[in-house]
């Protein structure tokens, strides 16, 4: 007779562990050697806004960034352990063995650090893609420039794609200290240019928009007095994105030309065929009205009417007009006989009433 299988003793509470018990361990496992998993100071990357579908947005971002990243920087290379030097010559040397072990650890870490890695942004409908070994502003400008020229739509969910060249703590003093060195490559003498500042804040209430813009504009002016503000066609646009306690900064070109770095709008040409068709139909309608007006004028002149305003169309009180003169004019011109008949009938009825 088979013995019954003994079940392991359950905990005293007798309840199953919930999801909250396993989530912290899963997050800790993800962070082991794989870089940060949330937006924090000291990162570079690309800030992407979407429309209620963040998972699809991340997929489109990976596809688009890998396509153009390989075009600019070549295919992504991963370090393979088999390609590491064997170190057979110095197997007995302890120092060489330690160096080899350190190299293997670094190689394994680099394998987990991808060129593009999504991290938690801290805001809804916002995705942050951390970049490694590339220049975000050049890559995003290359993407928008190609889409602007080809007018080929490549995304459905992604709205805006903003490069982030640096991040710092979202406190005014920290931002000022960081911006003094961050803005030097573009605005410090002998470099100069016209600029504007674009500010956006999410999940943050302790910063004042006007104060931040005023301080950053003062820093740009202090770097070179020839830097001027231009809101119509600036050479540079300083992008300031605040998410919780992190400030994201970047300096981009062609901000207005590329429709504020909106991937859905940049593929729309200024001379859209639908707009042209609507304009052409409107022009055709106006032309038809003008031609009909010209023909009516020609007909009136051919009929021999000397007065162009024979019968007033907007007359609100037709009873006050003189019936005899109207009948005479209509009979002479031959236009609108119905009105003439109505007038004559009205005159006959009035005569009958008088009689």
Topology:
Layout: H1 19-31, E1 45-50, H2 54-73, H3 94-112, E2 116-119, E3 126-131, H4 136-150, E4 158-164, E5 166-169, H5 172-182, H6 184-187, E6 194-202, H7 209-223, E7 228-229, E8 236-243, E9 246-252, H8 273-303, H9 323-333, H10 337-354
Parallel strand pairs: 6-7, 6-8
Antiparallel strand pairs: 1-3, 1-4, 2-3, 5-9, 8-9
Helix pairs in contact: 5-7, 9-10
Protein described:
Residues 1-38, 73-94, 269-355 are annotated as: Disordered. Residues 146-253 form the THUMP domain. It comes from Equus asinus (Donkey). Keywords: RNA-binding. One of its GO terms (molecular function) is RNA binding. With 355 residues, the protein is α+β, with helices and mostly antiparallel strands. Helix content is 44%, strand content 15%. The chain has helices at residues 19-31, 54-73, 94-112, 136-150, 172-182, 184-187, 209-223, 273-303, 323-333, 337-354, and strands at 45-50, 116-119, 126-131, 158-164, 166-169, 194-202, 228-229, 236-243, 246-252. A five-stranded mixed β-sheet has the order 5-9-8-6-7, covered by helices on one side. Strand 2 (116-119) and strand 3 (126-131) form a beta hairpin. Residues 79-91, 272-276 and 301-355 have low confidence and may be disordered.
